[in-house]
Specification:
Blueprint (H helix, E strand, L loop, with lengths): L13 E5 L5 E7 L2 E6 L4 E7 L26 E2 L24 E7 L5 E9 L2 E9 L3 E9 L13 E3 L2 E3 L7 E3 L5 E4 L4 E5 L10 E5 L5 E5 L4 E8 L3 E6 L1 H6 L12 E8 L12 E12 L1
Antiparallel strand pairs: 1-2, 2-3, 3-4, 5-10, 6-7, 7-8, 8-9, 9-20, 10-19, 11-19, 12-16, 13-14, 13-15, 15-18, 16-17, 17-20, 18-19
């Protein structure tokens, strides 16, 4: 889609500038935190709370060409996840992360943060994405079926906020909050498995949990805990490609698997939502950081 050239009035804490590959991005440098959001995919590629360490991982080999999905950050997987409920949808993870979004508004907040709103309408679905940047990161995406022609109108809608978290050493992190939750192991293809105790990353990991409860990533290498709290989430996805997976990706350096862990709030699979004309679904996530 062609970019909308209109730009909202910006506060002094924000600017739209060319980024990597010359792609337009919104830069936020506010008293409570900083962030970077590319209009391609409405893709947040960086967030740092004021005085802290960067929390979001983006690959140094990520492609910024306005066509390919950006590796890292927070890709928007919508209106389907993977190949969709039917298993036949393309491109993988939907068109949200590879479309150009319109920047609707950017406003300063009383708490020293910034709130940005982006929008996209395509294939009978209108999407709104709200990004709150401050001492916490708050993301909310809403999808509404407009009733316009949609080749996928009979298939349920899925959405995921595919957050790549920056960690010091993924082999040392401990993921808690999922104890007792059932999950689909996409590495082995086995479903109905149950998580017992904390999750540790020791091999390729791709699990879709039937839980939207808050998840905490304890990262001793960086001396912090990152808590991901889903809002209206019905699933949590935990993913790391490990060394073999990283080696197969041209946009991820071989060693970068150790510096990231995806913990994403989602509504996918059996929890996908069937929308009639005018109906909507909303999903959010809040990411907060605390020292150990």
């Amino acid at each position: 889609m062609n970019a909308d050239t209109t730009r909202p009035r910006l506060p002094r804490t924000a600017a739209v500038t060319p980024g990597r590959g010359g792609q337009p991005r919104l830069l936020i440098d506010a008293p409570a935190g900083s962030a970077e959001i590319y209009l391609h995919g409405a893709h947040l590629t960086a967030w740092t709370p004021r005085g802290g360490r960067p929390v979001i991982f983006t690959s140094r080999r990520a492609v910024f060409d306005g066509a390919a999905a950006i590796r890292g950050g927070v890709p928007l997987c919508l209106p389907w996840f993977g190949a969709g409920v039917s298993g036949a949808r393309r491109p993988a993870h939907g068109w949200g992360r590879i479309s150009t979004w319109q920047l609707r508004s950017v406003e300063s907040r009383a708490d020293g943060g910034v709130q940005a709103l982006l929008a996209l309408e395509r294939d009978g679905i209108a999407a709104l994405y709200s990004v709150g940047v401050g001492e916490e990161l708050s993301l909310t995406v809403s999808l509404r079926r407009t009733g316009a022609a949609d080749a996928y109108a009979d298939e349920p809608v899925e959405v995921a906020l595919h957050s790549y978290l920056a960690v010091g050493d993924v082999t040392a992190v401990e993921v808690t909050g999922l104890d007792g939750a059932a999950y689909l192991d996409k590495v082995t293809g086995m479903s109905g498995r149950i998580q017992h105790g904390p999750l540790r990353i020791t091999a390729p990991t791709d699990r879709v949990f039937d839980s939207g409860a808050p998840v905490t990533v304890t990262d001793p290498a960086y001396g912090r805990r990152i808590t991901v709290t889903g809002v209206r989430a019905r699933n949590t996805v935990v993913w790391n490609p490990w060394s073999a997976g990283a080696a197969s990706m041209t946009d991820l350096d071989d060693d970068e698997f150790a510096s990231m862990l995806c913990v994403e709030s989602a509504v996918v699979g059996g929890n996908a939502v069937r929308l009639g004309p005018g109906e909507s679904v909303s999903l959010g996530t809040r990411i907060a950081v605390a020292p150990l």
